[in-house]
């Protein structure tokens, strides 16, 4: 309300659970509202009003029963919250009219009843609160302004304040919860309005009507005492959903940053910045409150974490986000050849883009190649909703995904793609730098932890394979992507991928078999490392079995040839095929004084054994696997046809520095599932573990029927083992479920 209000409405509320300093912390509903009018000019008071409120859940804690003196029977006869709020408005309006006043402001003992109880409950029940509940004065802060020597605001209580100003306690007959608190606040208000204080109520607090969008720069300071991390969000939740979860608390402009995983998808976490520490502390009290059927964990976070996600430095992004009060939609899966006009035509006349092509932001790699992502601005909610109706419609030959987005997500996606590409190109001058050496040999084995991709387009590059693999790229072993070239050095249409376990290889074969890549479907088969090695050495793998490579035949193998060096030879050389080297480079000596692994590249030696291999072997270009976080690690594809020497310098204690490896999730195998069990049933079985639908893979037998088993991907091994310990042998549709952590 306006700061010139001439009337106070002293307001109090209680819930069916915790009250006092913990009011609203347990999500219990309001069961009692009490109010009374104070005329600031005439120093008069109105009639004391008390209303019971019927909650949806007629359950009271023992503490609430004792403090309020109310019973379930009394509440059953009461009106629901929306009716009581109507009665509040009618009563206050009638009294104001009788007094000849035009405006009023709520006066409360602390902000909890407004911020932590009334607004969250109204939001959950889809109630529209009257305007008066978006502004209030706190009697404790008003008193502290009069008497700053009385102590800190957070330490003040209503009894201690009354004692400080020598106002006597109410008689026992009037100490009924609600009535007592309102009478004490009225007495205190009249006391500070009179001599010698002559106080004027001026510390008006506001509750924001809606979330304000905005851009954040990495150079802006962010106070760590204002940031929280919310965890366990539904994957489809938007910044508006998070704002609604924290309804009643004021989030800073552009203060919601949804976190993304390695594949650019939301991971169920968000960082939220509030306007001050007081609101952050109130947000922490909502730990394990519910968003729909899911509870949300709320923890402290730092300003650095927020800036890492939400901050940006691109002038292009800043200009794109400079238009305020815009609705942002993210488009994913665009054809790489899509132009701004193609996107505008796809969205249509019923969802016009703000400023036409200027309202589009295409996400690109540092070299200018498109990623298939774009962000679009709409001037109103109606246009955005029309655009979202085109989710999974076709543009060109690809279906397009559309999602609500935020300014922070725009920054995060741009930061991710512009920081370091997944597969970097080699610098023009080969200066030694810390990288992960490509493995020079393949250990053979019968474990089927590999997959074979057959039928690749001949123009397919490593980036196309990574995009084809999608979310499964994080399960690829380091340096586990092998492109098979023919004897002319051209792509053969085959590739092999080494996965972290047989279960993960099976999952990829199930999910990716016959998926499309550049207008061609690609076959994906599970295979073993031994089978992969045979093909990479020149053998064939077909339905009739393995045909050994020429170099495996005793009559053809020259005595000096060793296709797979022993582990003792690894520190000396890694083998690449000479014909694939376009321009041999001269060796560069390492200069770094730090004990980190470095690579020096040398031109190939034309050894007879190698010439023999050129005639009889398939050529294989070895590429490193993608890192989990492109911003934390740099991988470089070694130049084909060169010999890479890993110059590893020991530490002072004699240990060899090892590169940091990416962290992965963990698989749990479910056995004994009912044959009609679906993904939703499994997600319900693991309720509370923050799993997404795409983390569940139902397994089928050779007849195409469900096998009664499933593979579940957990975000960490710890959470997987905890789930097995807590949920093993629990029933699903009456059947006990066996759970096993899959070993990598």
From TrEMBL:
GO terms for cellular component: nucleus. Residues 226-303 form the RRM domain. SMART domains: RRM (SM00360). GO terms for biological process: cranial skeletal system development; mRNA processing; RNA splicing. The keyword DNA-binding does not apply. InterPro entries: ESRP, Nucleotide-bd_a/b_plait_sf, RBD_domain_sf, RNaseH-like_sf, RNaseH_sf, RRM_dom. GO terms for molecular function: RNA binding. It is found in: Nucleus. Its main location: nucleus. Keywords: mRNA processing, mRNA splicing, Nucleus, Repeat, RNA-binding. Belongs to the ESRP family. PANTHER family: HETEROGENEOUS NUCLEAR RIBONUCLEOPROTEIN-RELATED. mRNA splicing factor that regulates the formation of epithelial cell-specific isoforms. Specifically regulates the expression of FGFR2-IIIb, an epithelial cell-specific isoform of fgfr2. Acts by directly binding specific sequences in mRNAs. Binds the GU-rich sequence motifs in the ISE/ISS-3, a cis-element regulatory region present in the mRNA of fgfr2. This is Epithelial splicing regulatory protein 2-like isoform X1. The gene is LOC120048285.
């Amino acid at each position: 309300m306006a700061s010139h209000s001439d009337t106070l409405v002293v307001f109090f509320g209680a819930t069916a659970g915790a009250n006092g300093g913990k009011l609203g912390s347990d999500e219990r509903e309001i069961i009692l509202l009490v109010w009374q009018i104070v005329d600031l000019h005439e120093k008069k008071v109105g009639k004391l009003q008390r209303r019971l409120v019927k909650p949806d859940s007629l359950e009271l804690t023992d503490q609430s029963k004792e403090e309020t003196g109310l019973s379930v029977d009394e509440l059953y006869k009461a009106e629901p919250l929306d009716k009581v709020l109507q009665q509040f408005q009618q009563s206050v309006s009638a009294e104001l009219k009788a007094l000849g006043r035009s405006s009023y402001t709520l006066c409360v003992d602390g902000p909890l009843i407004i911020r932590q109880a009334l607004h969250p409950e109204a939001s959950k029940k889809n109630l529209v609160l009257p305007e008066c509940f978006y502004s209030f004065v706190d009697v404790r802060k008003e008193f502290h302004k009069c008497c700053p020597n009385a102590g800190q605001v957070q330490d003040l209580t209503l009894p201690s304040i009354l004692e400080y100003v020598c106002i006597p306690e109410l008689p026992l007959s009037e100490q009924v919860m609600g009535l007592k608190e309102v009478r004490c606040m009225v007495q205190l208000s009249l006391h500070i309005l009179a001599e010698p204080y002559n106080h004027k109520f001026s510390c008006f607090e506001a509750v924001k009507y809606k979330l304000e969008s905005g851009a954040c720069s990495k150079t802006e300071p962010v106070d760590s005492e204002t940031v929280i991390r919310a965890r366990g969000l539904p994957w489809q939740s938007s910044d508006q959903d998070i704002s609604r979860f924290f309804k009643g608390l004021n989030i800073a402009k552009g203060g919601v940053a949804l976190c993304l995983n390695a594949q650019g998808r939301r991971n169920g976490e968000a960082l939220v910045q509030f306007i001050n520490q007081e609101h952050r502390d109130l947000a922490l009290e909502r730990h394990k409150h519910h968003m729909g059927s899911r509870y949300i964990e709320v923890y402290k976070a730092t300003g650095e974490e927020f800036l890492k996600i939400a901050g940006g430095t691109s002038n292009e992004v800043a200009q794109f986000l400079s238009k305020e009060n815009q609705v942002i939609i993210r488009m994913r899966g665009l054809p790489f050849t899509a132009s701004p006009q193609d996107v505008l035509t796809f969205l249509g006349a019923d969802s016009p883009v703000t400023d036409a092509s200027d309202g589009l932001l295409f996400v690109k790699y540092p070299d200018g190649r498109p990623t298939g992502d774009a962000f679009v601005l709409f001037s109103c909610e109606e246009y955005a909703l029309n655009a979202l109706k085109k989710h999974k419609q076709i543009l060109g030959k690809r279906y397009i995904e559309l999602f609500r987005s935020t300014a922070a997500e725009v920054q995060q996606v741009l930061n991710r793609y512009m920081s370091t590409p997944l597969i970097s190109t080699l610098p023009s001058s080969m200066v030694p730098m810390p990288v992960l050496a490509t493995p020079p040999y393949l250990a053979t084995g019968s474990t089927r932890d590999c997959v074979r991709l057959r039928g690749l387009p001949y123009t397919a590059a490593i980036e196309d394979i990574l995009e084809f693999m999608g979310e499964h790229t994080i399960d690829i072993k380091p340096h586990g992507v092998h492109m098979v070239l023919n004897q002319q050095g051209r792509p053969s249409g085959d590739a092999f991928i080494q996965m972290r376990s047989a279960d993960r290889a099976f999952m990829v074969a199930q999910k990716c078999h016959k998926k499309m890549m550049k207008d061609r479907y690609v076959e994906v088969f599970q295979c073993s490392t031994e089978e992969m090695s045979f093909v990479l050495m020149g053998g064939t793998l077909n339905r009739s079995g393995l045909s050994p490579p020429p170099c495996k035949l005793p009559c053809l193998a020259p005595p000096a040839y060793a296709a797979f060096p022993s582990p003792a030879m690894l520190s000396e050389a890694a083998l690449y095929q000479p014909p694939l080297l376009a321009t041999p480079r001269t060796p560069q000596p390492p200069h770094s004084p730090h004990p980190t692994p470095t690579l020096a590249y040398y031109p190939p030696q034309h050894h007879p054994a190698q010439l023999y291999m050129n005639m009889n072997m398939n050529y294989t270009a070895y590429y490193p696997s993608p890192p989990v976080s492109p911003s934390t690690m740099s991988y470089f594809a070694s130049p084909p046809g060169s010999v890479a020497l890993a110059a590893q310098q020991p530490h002072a204690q004699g240990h060899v520095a090892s590169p940091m490896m990416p962290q992965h999730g963990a698989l749990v195998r479910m056995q004994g599932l009912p044959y009609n069990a679906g993904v939703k049933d499994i997600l319900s079985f693991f309720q509370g573990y923050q799993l997404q639908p795409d983390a569940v893979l139902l397994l089928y037998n050779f007849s195409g029927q469900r096998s009664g088993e499933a593979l579940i991907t957990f975000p960490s091994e710890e959470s997987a083992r905890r789930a097995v310990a807590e949920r093993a042998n629990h029933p699903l549709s009456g059947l006990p479920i066996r759970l096993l952590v899959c070993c990598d």
